[in-house]
């Protein structure tokens, strides 16, 4: 599209995608922190397995949340 509103449409799409990525990042960090706190309470600390689970959970959440929010 090369009309007079091309920049506006491109900016709107970038804002929509950027907003969903920001929400995905916030949810990802929140879920990871909750998992780490739960493991500290349950196990008395964290191990390498807990760190690995946090990484996998954050990565999966970061992919799923924006995919669910985009139209």
Quickly list its features.
71 residues
Question: What does this protein structure show overall?
Answer:
It is elongated, with a radius of gyration of 18 Å. The model has no long low-confidence stretch (mean pLDDT 81). Helix content is 85%, strand content 0%. With 71 residues, the protein is mainly alpha-helical. The longest helix is centred in the middle third of the chain and has 38 residues. The protein is built from 2 helices and no strands.
Unreliable residue stretches:
none
| Strand-residue proportion | under 5%
Number of helices: 2
Distance linking N and C termini: 20 Å
Which bin fits the share of residues in helices?
over 70%
Order of helices and strands: HH
The largest β sheet comes out as:
none
- The total of beta strands comes to 0
Mean pLDDT: 81
Q: What's the alpha carbon Rg, rounded to whole Å?
A: 18 Å
Structural class designation: mainly alpha
Principal-axes geometry comes out as elongated
In short:
With 71 residues, the chain is mostly helical. Helices cover 85% and strands 0% of the residues.
């Amino acid at each position: 599209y090369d009309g007079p509103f091309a920049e506006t449409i491109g900016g709107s799409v970038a804002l929509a995608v950027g907003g969903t990525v920001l929400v995905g990042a916030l949810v990802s960090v929140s879920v990871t922190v909750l998992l780490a706190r739960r493991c500290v309470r349950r196990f008395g600390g964290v191990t390498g397995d807990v760190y690995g689970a946090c990484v996998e959970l954050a990565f999966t959440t970061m992919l799923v949340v924006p995919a669910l929010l985009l139209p």
